[in-house]
């Protein structure tokens, strides 16, 4: 029974039972992944997951139910389950089904054949990546993780008020994590890349070489003296830090008193160099989407513009409470999860400086490339963080050596204010991205 047949049968039976309005939220995902180790296939994994959630109004109350199966006998279960809990569930505010936006952006092209990529192509790409990494430098002793995967995801939201939103997405990724050793010292490094169209479009050799460079460049690392230093967060570390604090832009967090940005709309909350954008309509990014989890049409939103806070992330519920329009940031962690608030494709707008320019203009300072302990070392309510990190020491405008056994401490809201230069090295590999960011000073604890 396909999803269209199931939805039609479900709604027909629901009307017979007295449901006034109904909605389904359907998710289906499929992925194939190949992992190799020492020239052999280590893992070959095929995963299919997903399910359907149902909500409907009966006798003036909203009920909920969900299932992983699309079988005819499940229809009665969903309707009975939703009817039963409609009388039990208490809600401060009755959920409303959304009839849909006036118009929707055009769906991006979907590579329907990507998920059906021949296993031989995935295997050979993974083996080539491992071979390339091992041959790139004699200090590389192992590719600890070397994988290539393809996956597709389908989302369908349909209700009896006229909403009908459907999307299909596909993605190929390649990832390698290597170990380098020299004179008794062992370090690691990794890299990854993606394509929305084909595995062959990923530059496997480039991924391997960048992973190798990440690893061998950490050899010979040691700590530095504790002090306040000028700091460059390289693009990947900057994205890590931003991702840890995205909840502060959520209207839910603001409403609950968990964000220091409450009451700051229209005010300067960051350096004038900072413009923070969520653009789910950008082409060729892995986190694009034309509608959110409530079926609202998405659009480009400037969260911060030239340092001033323009809006929070809103779904329809938080927008109604605040008396504003939804920013189409409704989200669901899974098909049967509750509606929440989250971003789609969030990034700091790139500047004009190259990373090399930032380094060249630094007399004595630190470039951080990896942050560790983000879950334990960050406090989103206060903005404070204290994180172990890895990086490179800079003297007289040049990278001198790798640095380890250090901790960077500060406050995220202060970091936003202190950014004095933004790089042009924005590269989308996930849903939260940043170019390199340079700050005048941060506290570094070392020896």
Summarize the structure in short.
The protein has 9 helices and 19 strands. It is α+β, with helices and mostly antiparallel strands.
Walk me through what this model shows.
- The protein has 447 residues and is α+β, with helices and mostly antiparallel strands.
- Helix content is 22%, strand content 38%.
- It is built from 9 helices and 19 strands.
- Strands 3-2-1-4-5-6 form a 6-stranded antiparallel β-sheet. Strands 7-14-15-16-19 form a 5-stranded mixed β-barrel. Strands 10-9-8-13-18 form a 5-stranded mixed β-sheet, covered by helices on one side.
- Strand 9 and strand 10 form a beta hairpin.
- Helix 1 packs across helix 2.
- The longest helix has 18 residues.
- The chain is globular.
- The termini are far apart.
- The model has no long low-confidence stretch (mean pLDDT 96).
Question: Layout of helices and strands, plus pairs?
Answer:
Blueprint: H1 3-17, E1 19-37, E2 40-58, E3 61-67, H2 72-88, H3 119-136, E4 140-159, E5 164-182, E6 185-195, H4 204-216, E7 227-233, H5 235-244, H6 251-255, E8 276-278, E9 301-305, E10 308-309, H7 316-322, E11 330-331, E12 340-341, E13 346-348, H8 355-360, E14 364-372, E15 384-395, E16 398-411, H9 412-418, E17 419-422, E18 432-433, E19 437-445
Parallel strand pairs: 7-14, 13-18
Antiparallel strand pairs: 1-2, 1-4, 2-3, 4-5, 5-6, 7-19, 8-9, 8-13, 9-10, 11-12, 14-15, 15-16, 16-19, 17-19
Helix pairs in contact: 1-2, 3-4
């Amino acid at each position: 029974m396909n999803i269209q047949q199931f939805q039609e049968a479900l709604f027909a039976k629901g009307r017979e039972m007295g449901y006034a309005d109904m909605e389904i939220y359907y998710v289906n995902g499929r992925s194939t992944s190949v992992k190799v180790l020492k020239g052999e296939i280590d893992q070959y994994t095929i995963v299919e997951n997903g399910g359907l959630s149902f909500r409907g109004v009966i006798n003036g109350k909203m009920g909920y139910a969900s299932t992983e199966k699309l079988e005819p006998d499940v229809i009665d279960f969903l309707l009975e389950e939703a009817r039963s809990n409609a009388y039990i569930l208490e809600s401060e505010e009755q959920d409303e089904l959304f009839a849909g936006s006036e118009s929707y952006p055009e769906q991006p092209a979907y590579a329907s054949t990507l998920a059906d990529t021949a296993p031989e192509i995935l295997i050979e790409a993974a083996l080539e990546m491992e071979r390339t990494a091992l041959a790139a430098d004699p200090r590389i002793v192992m590719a600890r993780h070397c994988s290539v995967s393809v996956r597709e995801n389908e989302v369908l939201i349909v209700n009896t008020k006229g909403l009908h939103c459907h999307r299909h997405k596909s993605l190929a990724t390649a990832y390698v994590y290597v170990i380098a050793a020299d004179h008794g010292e062992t370090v690691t490094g990794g890299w990854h890349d993606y394509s929305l169209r084909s595995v062959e479009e990923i530059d496997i050799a480039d991924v391997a070489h960048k992973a190798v460079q990440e690893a061998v460049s950490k050899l010979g690392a040691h700590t530095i003296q504790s002090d306040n230093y000028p700091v460059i967060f390289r693009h990947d570390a900057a994205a890590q830090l931003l991702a840890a604090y995205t909840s502060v832009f959520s209207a839910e967090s603001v409403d609950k008193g968990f964000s220091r940005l409450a009451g700051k709309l229209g005010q300067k909350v960051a350096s004038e160099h900072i413009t923070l954008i969520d653009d789910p309509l950008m082409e060729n990014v892995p986190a694009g989407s034309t509608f959110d989890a409530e079926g609202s049409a998405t659009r480009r939103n400037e969260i911060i513009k030239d340092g001033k806070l323009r809006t929070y992330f809103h779904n329809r519920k938080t927008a109604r409470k605040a008396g504003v329009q939804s920013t189409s940031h409704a989200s669901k962690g899974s098909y049967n999860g509750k509606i929440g608030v989250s971003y789609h494709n969030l990034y700091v707008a790139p500047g004009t400086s190259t990373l090399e320019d930032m380094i060249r203009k630094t007399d004595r300072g630190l470039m951080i490339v990896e942050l560790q302990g983000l879950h334990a070392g960050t406090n989103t309510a206060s903005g404070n963080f204290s994180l172990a990190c890895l990086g490179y020491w800079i003297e007289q405008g040049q990278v001198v050596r790798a640095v380890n056994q250090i901790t960077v401490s500060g406050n995220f809201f202060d970091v936003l204010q202190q950014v004095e230069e933004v790089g042009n090295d924005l590269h989308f590999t996930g849903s939260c991205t940043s170019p390199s960011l340079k700050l005048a000073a941060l506290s570094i604890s070392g020896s």
